[in-house]
Amino acid sequence: MYSKLKLISGHANKPLAEEVANYVGVPLSDIDLFKFSNDESFVKINESVRGTDVFIIQPTCRPVNDNLIDLLIMIDALKRASAQRINCVIPYYAYARSDKKDQPRVPITAKLVADLLTVTGANRVVAVDLHAEQIQGFFSIPVDHLYTIPIFARYFNEMNLDNPVVISPDSGGANRARALAKRLNCGLAIGDKRRQANDDKTELLNIIGDVEDKTAILYDDIIDTGSSLIKIANVLSTKNVKNIYAACTHGVLSCSAVQNINNSNIEKLFITNTIPLSEEAAACPKIIQLSIAEMLAMAIKKIHTEESLSVLFT
Length: 314
Prior knowledge:
The chain is of the alpha/beta class. It has helices at about 15-25, 65-80, 110-120, 150-160, 175-185, 225-235, 255-265, 280-285, 295-305; strands spanning about 5-10, 30-35, 40-45, 55, 85-90, 125-130, 145, 165-170, 185-195, 200-210, 215-225, 245-250, 270, 285-290. About 30% of the residues lie in helices and about 25% in strands.
């Protein structure tokens, strides 16, 4: 059934790609991917891909631009090698937060990346928890948008939390948090943030919703520096909550995020392996990583056999 299915991985998240390959039952194809001394990237596919259905597993995480260029040149190599269909599995889509022109003279980089992928020769994109739903519309090719909500919901249900409530850091993530709250059959609260005048920083003014005497689950798609989650956790600690947990799909964890999380009153931070953990993050006792490999493997097999992906959302 999978004789025409090929899996390829760049350097961005090889452990995830290997785990996906194990679930699919198809080994990763052998490729050479390296940089010349002049910092230019080079790729060579070491086996025939003519007429095959190829899935490139490559998140565009740090180093973002290197991993993005590697993805583009892998697409080009496959296209010139006569692959029948080139599917880009991008667990973490970089530049997703640059999804609109909200200031004068700024780019919409998420759209630029979509154009680059399409023009280079990608036939399909598989993404996980895009920062904004409208990014799917930036592509003129099919986009399969997968969600990690079922993974987090299953994990939290197994924890048997006492009187949980899901909290979105801001109104922009309310729909995402509402979907998790529905699966946990619990309440929803939203952080009320305001941008300070003449400043890029925001301040949290209030928590909208009932959180008193509940187990708080802070839920967001990306944790970067962690400042927003920590601010909300600090406010929640004054609201008589029982416990504070956090869950985020993409653990960017830049700057001193790991140290800040470790020193915060967040008891546990649950993130997925869309982005590989740094050594510091892997050693942090508060950070627990959940795998999306099985979900990606199921998506790859169903796309290859032209089946519906609906089962992944239940």
